[in-house]
């Protein structure tokens, strides 16, 4: 481990999928860390490689997935080098996962008590009675009413929100060090979403679990995450603390994502969206994959992939706009608003190149 | 559950009544008479025989008389088989038929489940292909062809089993195998399809995420969920075995009920036709009832009374 605070370090991960049409380069050299007790959100649109990343950590990628390089270090062991049997001992004990759709992720023909007790029986060799007693405790912890009566119920006797609580109970019953939540609230309605997110935060505080939170919903990220990594076309394009990503974004793709998220201030008739579609990863573009959809694209974007430029110690973005030689561009108005807010938040002089522009605006106001 | 059963039994009785009625009138429309040597009999003799069996009365009266008998458990006397009571006739010949039919169902369905499950677990490998070929052969080879092949190779050439006749377990092996091919094939096909589906479902993914091993996943999560559609086809398969066993019984000279059914239809043996129809129909209804109950045991979502 490079850093004592890290629980998981992903380095230069590359994953391809062999298909009839050719090799899909789903993950194209990504690196990130997960710190102890933090929540790292990975955001990006569908197909950007969020789920493939977490599946690689779990060792649950489809059979046609080929690891093209990289390491996933957990406690000084490379998870990519482990056999299926070795991974079985880590999955559900040290690293657990919550899936997207609670309506389909529970076995419809098994009592929920047994489903929650299973990880205990598998990993700790517990006897039935003891495992069930602990499963019952877990059910109470995740807020299932009348847990004692309901332990012998089947999944169809629960609502969607309750089922997701059960899935969370299954994931947390062994108090894993890492919890991967793959869009855990996407299939739930908004009020239930909030309850589940609160529950996850509450349980994280109790268990000190590190969470990798996969989502395409930036609204959820703001309330959940400590740090955010933005993924696009199999690469991480920007990462930083949640405040840095929300109030001082540097990558035009992050700008686009934030702009297309409605806020309390959103008015007008049309919600902005990012034009175009993501590139075909069968044949990824040579330069910056976002260039074709990027109104701020420079010529070099089509020729060479941008490296990560440092914005702060915790904030990096892969866009040529941060290169000293790049022309200065003005981000969209809402982003400027966000950056202003960031300036107020931190009481720091922000990045000089934009600073001037914002000062001018502030003078005008 | 008791209420559900009572309701189902009422429907079974209703079904039996409708089937009895329909069969009775359809049967009467069949050409020919129960008399074997009609040409040699005088009209007086014919009339006397008709009167003896109540065949001279109007159709609706015959029907009511028959129905009255059935309600009291009297299925009448066979015209053809030495004037034996139909109930005795069926009772004495049902045994062998039920034995080979039951054995064929158990062997076929169990083997089918295994073949289907292995095919699904090893999907898209040579094992899967082999399993698929087995089920295609099982569906396409008629049971009587298989019967003859089994007689020739296992009976005549290898002399492992008696070629024909009836007298103990060894005699049941070849007919059972001949009859088991089709339920095996059907079960395997359904099992494979469903299990491939189940194995790619989210809850199997969750079981993997729990750290459960391959065997555990199949045993604890995949098998039970794959069984649900298989149960659906067991009913129709049982019917197929019941009615399809006649030819096989003939080939192996089994003193079963199938042969009698064919004979009774050919000779207008009205009481025997009726009796056998009712028995077959009742058996089918019971099989379907059992299927529905097993459904509930396997899948809690369709469990009755909960």
TrEMBL record, chain A:
Subcellular locations according to the entry: Cell membrane
Gene3D superfamilies noted in UniProt: P-loop containing nucleotide triphosphate hydrolases (3.40.50.300)
One GO term of the biological process aspect: peptide transport
PANTHER family named in the record: DIPEPTIDE TRANSPORT ATP-BINDING PROTEIN DPPD, OLIGOPEPTIDE TRANSPORT ATP-BINDING PROTEIN APPD
Family designation: Belongs to the ABC transporter superfamily.
One Gene Ontology term, aspect cellular component: plasma membrane
Signal peptide: none
InterPro entries: AAA+_ATPase, ABC_Ni/Peptide_Import, ABC_transporter-like_ATP-bd, ABC_transporter-like_CS, Oligopep_ABC_C, P-loop_NTPase
Domain of life where this protein originates: Bacteria
UniProt KW keywords: ATP-binding, Cell membrane, Membrane, Nucleotide-binding, Transport
A Pfam short name: oligo_HPY
Gene Ontology MF: a single term: ATP binding
Domain ABC transporter: 10-258
Taxonomy of the source species: Bacteria, Bacillati, Bacillota, Bacilli, Lactobacillales
First-listed, main subcellular location of the protein, grouped into a coarse class: membrane
Tagged with keyword Ubl conjugation: no
NCBIfam families the record matches: oligo_HPY
Topology versus the membrane: Peripheral membrane protein
Protein's UniProt name: ABC superfamily ATP binding cassette transporter, ABC protein
Statement: the UniProt record of this protein carries the keyword Lyase: no
From TrEMBL, chain B:
Pfam family, one: BPD_transp_1_N
Annotated membrane topology: Multi-pass membrane protein
Transmembrane segments: 9-27, 98-121, 133-154, 166-185, 227-252, 272-298
Record's protein name: Peptide ABC transporter permease
Key words of the record: Cell membrane, Membrane, Transmembrane, Transmembrane helix, Transport
Entry keyword Transcription regulation: no
Annotated CDD domains: TM_PBP2
InterPro entries in UniProt: BPD_transp_1_N, MetI-like, MetI-like_sf
Domain annotation ABC transmembrane type-1: ranges: 94-295
Family indicated by similarity: Belongs to the binding-protein-dependent transport system permease family.
UniProt-annotated location(s): Cell membrane
């Amino acid at each position: 481990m490079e850093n004592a605070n890290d629980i998981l370090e992903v380095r230069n991960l590359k994953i391809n999928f062999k298909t009839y049409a050719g090799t899909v380069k789903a993950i194209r050299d990504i690196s990130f860390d997960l710190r102890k007790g933090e929540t790292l959100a990975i955001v990006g649109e569908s197909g950007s490689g969020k789920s493939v990343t977490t599946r690689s950590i779990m060792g649950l990628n489809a059979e046609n997935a080929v690891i093209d390089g990289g390491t996933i270090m957990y406690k000084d062991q490379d998870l990519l080098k482990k056999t299926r049997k070795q991974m079985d001992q880590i999955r559900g004990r040290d690293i657990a996962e919550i899936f997207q759709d609670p309506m389909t992720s529970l076995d419809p023909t098994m009592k929920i008590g047994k489903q929650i007790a299973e990880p205990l029986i598998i990993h700790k060799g517990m006897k039935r009675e003891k495992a069930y007693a602990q499963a019952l405790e877990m059910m109470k912890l995740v807020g299932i009413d009348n847990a004692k009566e309901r332990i012998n119920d089947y999944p169809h006797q629960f609502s969607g929100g309750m089922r997701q609580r059960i899935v969370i109970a299954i994931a947390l019953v062994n108090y894993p060090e890492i919890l991967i939540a793959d869009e855990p609230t996407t299939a739930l309605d908004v009020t239930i979403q909030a309850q589940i997110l609160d529950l996850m935060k509450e349980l994280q505080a109790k268990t000190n679990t590190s969470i990798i939170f996969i989502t395409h919903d930036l609204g959820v990220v703001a309330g959940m995450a400590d740090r955010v990594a933005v993924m696009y076309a199999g690469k991480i394009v920007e990462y930083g603390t949640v405040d840095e990503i929300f109030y001082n974004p540097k990558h035009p793709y992050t700008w686009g994502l934030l702009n297309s998220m409605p806020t309390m201030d959103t008015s007008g008739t049309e919600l902005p969206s990012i034009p175009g579609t993501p590139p075909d990863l069968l044949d990824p573009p040579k330069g910056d994959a976002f260039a074709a959809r990027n109104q701020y694209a420079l010529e070099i974007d089509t020729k060479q992939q941008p490296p990560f430029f440092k914005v702060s110690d915790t904030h990096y973005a892969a866009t040529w706009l941060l290169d000293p030689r790049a022309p200065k561009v003005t981000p969209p108005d809402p982003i400027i608003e966000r950056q202003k807010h960031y300036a107020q938040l931190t009481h720091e002089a922000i990045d000089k190149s934009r600073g001037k522009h914002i000062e001018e605006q502030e003078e005008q106001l | 559950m008791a209420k559900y059963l009572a309701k189902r039994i009422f429907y079974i009785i209703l079904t039996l009544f409708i089937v009895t009625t329909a069969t009775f009138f359809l049967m009467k429309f069949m050409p020919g008479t129960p008399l074997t040597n009609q040409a040699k009999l005088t009209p007086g003799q014919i009339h006397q025989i008709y009167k003896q069996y109540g065949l001279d009365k109007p159709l609706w009266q015959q029907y009511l008389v028959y129905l009255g008998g059935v309600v009291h458990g009297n299925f009448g006397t066979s015209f053809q088989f030495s004037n034996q009571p139909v109930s005795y006739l069926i009772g004495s010949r049902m045994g062998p038929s039920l034995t080979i039919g039951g054995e064929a169902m158990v062997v076929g369905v169990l083997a089918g489940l295994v073949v289907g499950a292995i095919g699904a677990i090893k999907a898209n490998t040579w094992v899967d292909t082999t399993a698929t070929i087995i089920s295609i052969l099982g569906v396409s080879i008629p049971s009587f062809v298989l019967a003859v092949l089994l007689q020739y190779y296992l009976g005549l050439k290898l002399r492992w089993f008696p070629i024909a006749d009836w007298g103990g377990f060894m005699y049941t092996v070849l007919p059972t195998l001949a009859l088991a091919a089709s339920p095996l094939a059907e079960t395997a096909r359904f099992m494979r399809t469903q299990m491939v589906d189940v194995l790619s479902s989210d809850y199997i993914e969750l079981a993997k995420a729990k750290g459960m091993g391959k065997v555990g996943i199949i045993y604890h999560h995949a098998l039970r969920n794959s069984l649900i559609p298989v149960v659906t086809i067991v009913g129709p398969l049982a019917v197929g075995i019941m009615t399809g066993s006649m030819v096989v019984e003939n080939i192996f000279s089994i003193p079963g009920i199938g042969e009698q059914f064919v004979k009774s239809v050919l000779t207008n043996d009205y009481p025997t036709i009726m009796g056998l129809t009712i028995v077959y129909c009742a058996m089918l209804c019971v099989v379907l009832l059992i299927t529905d109950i097993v459904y509930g045991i396997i899948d809690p979502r369709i469990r009755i009374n909960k």
